[in-house]
Design brief:
By secondary structure, the protein is α/β, with parallel strands linked by helices. The chain has 18 helices and 13 strands.
Amino acid sequence: MNAPAKPLAGLKVVELGTLIAGPFASRLCAEFGAEVIKIESPDGGDPLRKWRKLYEGTSLWWFVQARNKKSLTLDLKHPDGQEILKKLLAEADILIENFRPGVLEKLGLGWEVLHALNPKLVMVRLSGFGQSGPYKDQPGFGAVGESMGGLRYITGFEDRPPVRTGISIGDSIAALWGVIGALMALRHREVNGGQGQVVDVALYEAVFAMMESMVPEFDVFGFIRERTGNIMPGITPSSIHTSVDGKHVQIGANGDAIFKRFMQAIGRDDLANDPQLADNAGRDARRDELYGVIDRWVGSLPLEEVLTMLNRAEVPASRIFSAEDMFSDPQFLAREMFLSAKLPDGKPFKMPGIVPKLSETPGSAEWVGPELGEHNAEVLAGLGYSAEQVAALKADGAI
């Protein structure tokens, strides 16, 4: 029986992106069936190819971030390179780009030009500050977006400077908004009979949109949320604690019934039955006391015993997972969150699994990130170029 087509099968996506935000957005499209053609500079390609841990000279991150994509090298300053790009975009559904605003316009490839070329094209533009406003021309990486969007200000401990998360979360959040916007635009195009449009995602706005109640709390009460370490005032108890064997556990017992079960499980019926602690407001007023109790309890036991007791009491909790923990965890394995693949030399390795899980048309990883220009001949042949023409384009520096 043939497998059903993936949900984005039949869509053509052109990626003009480097590093994280744009490439992550197009990766999601590629995993769910879109044909993604990644445009790279002939002189080295995406810098991500050389970021973090390298295997035989290529980043392991690259093999994941560019999986299922086709690599086409084009010099976009060369007239023939621009002509090839226009031919691609004339038949594409989505263009994803993360240049600084104005770069494509200087190349003669702005929205007005591309919309006239292909009125159905959806253009996803990911940038630090968006396509308008006084900051639009400033450079803005994910770290800047996280800072301006509010995330860095509230991350860390109150007596220390702000800290970053361990990944480029701002770029990834922006990529998700970009894909959501593209799918909305496609829905409008296909169902409402509309044309293509621009999806304008600013990194700082992508982060800002995740800041929960920060805006109304300041506007109504003048309240500025500050750094609070591992706890979140107003939601108690929910924090990280350290076991006697030096391991860490997140415990979220802030539900009323959950808190009562938790206290009963650790032998503190007095707290379980204390009417002042029956709701979140009362618990938060005594949070230092409660966190002291929990710290002492967790600190007296090994982590596995802590987790066993909490699970038995139906209290939400988790060890703080390292990559090593994940590789042997039955939940990760049952959900197929590690895919087996091979590096170019045949060496097997694990890649992250596909998210989200679709019951009828799941995504997949068909191949790892390609070599630079690996699909030049294939893509150009699809546009009508002969082998001789491709060789001439290469000799002239257009590809």
